[in-house]
Specification:
single chain, 7-stranded antiparallel sheet, 3-stranded antiparallel sheet
Length: 168
């Protein structure tokens, strides 16, 4: 029996929400920063442009992230837009408790944060604001420098897998 009053919205099940929102293709980025003991980084799908004036971008790390506190402490970081051949790199930076930079080539952005080799684009940022967003933190970051390689196509994530997939 449904005990809700008529004014209460229905509950949205997290698994159903994930399945439905998976129909929206997203790019994949790795956010990197200099940190004590070596650079920190994590994979993120919730990246977007926020404002041209002032130049702002946004992304949303999970509140459970162990990398975001290190990056927040640095106050400066680089958003690396992954290229279509970076699926393994995306998976490696999504894991916790591993040396994410083992065998990964990079060069420093103007902030000192890692720009990963072969990315489609990079955006060097400073932390502007943070907002609570449920089980994530919404980050607004000011763009300080950026660059792109127009010859590189982006890595996409769609319906739970890399690339665009059309399934029944």
């Amino acid at each position: 029996m449904d005990n809700r009053t008529s004014s209460e919205p229905p509950q949205v099940e997290p698994t159903h929400m994930r399945e439905v929102l998976g129909h929206f293709a997203s790019g994949v980025v790795i956010v990197t920063a200099p940190a004590p003991g070596g650079p920190a980084g994590f994979t993120c799908q919730s990246f977007s442009s926020l404002s041209l004036d002032p130049p702002l971008v946004s992304f949303a790390p999970a509140r459970s992230s162990t990398s975001w506190p290190k990056i927040r402490a640095a106050g400066r970081f680089c958003v690396n837009v992954l290229a279509e051949d970076h699926a393994e790199l995306s998976t490696a930076f999504a894991r916790s408790g591993t040396d994410k930079y083992a065998g990964v080539a990079w060069r420093p952005a103007p902030s000192g944060a890692p720009i990963l080799d072969g990315v489609a684009a990079w955006i060097d940022c400073t932390l502007e604001h943070e907002y609570a967003g449920g089980d994530h933190t919404i980050v607004a970051a000011r763009v300080q420098a950026l660059g792109a390689d127009p010859s590189r196509a982006p890595l996409l994530f769609h319906r739970g897998a890399y690339g665009i997939s059309v399934r029944d």
